[in-house]
Q: What sequence folds into this?
């Protein structure tokens, strides 16, 4: 099967499952975020093995970060992130196969937990917005999916002007504009006359998602390029690894939460 059709098949199988778990929320969503987060973090640490990340500290840290968000919101989520730094130093100190560089090892470990665990935690907290969490997180997921899909197809068909050639040569300004239009349209129509955000607030949220999504994608591309990898893994046929699939969400989820909070919710 070609990579193109593999992408379609994987999306058709996984998306209904993801949206059903998101609809249920609670510990179901926590379980999904934790499973995806552990796999994505493992992929990152595998790519960064030359920097000798402290894998045990990172895996425990992401569990604590997501659990903190689930049980206590942003404050306890930050507690999980802080614990990762402490755990990293302890593991570094007692490890027999001690990495040669404390800064590289702990920096890589904490970066992974903050990036993957923090991003997923804040996305999960979108689901907890009082009264509107289910609508909000489904809208965010649909907007990111629409953004990625429109950017991919328009970029392949019409892309002429490179967006960031030094980081990701395949991305174009044409694809970015198409993705932004798709994201804004999805948010606008999903929230239209729902009593949640005004029309202009919905447009602003859609624009923020579009920008955050492409930055998240470019950030992961820069990390992979720096570490010498094309994909983070091969678990999802045609899509690469789990980190490749959630890279946009890791920036768009937190951005969405804070834009909505800025609107007064």
A:
């Amino acid at each position: 099967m070609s990579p193109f059709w593999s992408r379609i098949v994987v999306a058709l199988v996984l998306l209904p499952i993801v949206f059903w778990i998101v609809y249920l929320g609670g510990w179901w969503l926590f379980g999904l975020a934790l499973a995806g987060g552990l796999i994505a973090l493992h992929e990152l640490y595998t790519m960064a093995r030359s920097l000798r990340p402290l894998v045990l500290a990172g895996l425990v840290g992401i569990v604590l970060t997501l659990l903190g968000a689930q049980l206590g919101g942003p404050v306890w989520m930050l507690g999980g992130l802080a614990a990762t730094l402490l755990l990293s130093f302890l593991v570094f100190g007692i490890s027999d196969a001690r990495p040669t560089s404390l800064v590289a090892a702990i920096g890589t470990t904490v970066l992974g937990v903050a990036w993957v665990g923090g991003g997923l935690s804040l996305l999960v907290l979108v689901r907890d917005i009082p009264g509107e969490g289910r609508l909000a997180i489904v809208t965010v997921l649909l907007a990111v999916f629409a953004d990625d899909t429109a950017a991919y197809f328009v970029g392949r068909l019409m892309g002429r002007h490179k967006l960031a050639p030094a980081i990701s040569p395949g991305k174009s300004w044409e694809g970015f504009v198409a993705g932004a239009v798709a994201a804004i349209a999805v948010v606008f129509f999903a929230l239209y006359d729902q009593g949640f955000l005004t029309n202009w607030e919905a447009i602003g949220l859609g624009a923020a998602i579009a920008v955050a999504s492409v930055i998240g994608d470019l950030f992961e591309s820069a990390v992979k390029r720096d570490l010498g990898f094309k994909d983070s893994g091969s678990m999802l046929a045609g899509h690469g690894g789990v980190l490749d699939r959630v890279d946009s969400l890791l920036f768009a989820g937190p951005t969405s939460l804070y834009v909505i909070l800025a609107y007064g919710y």
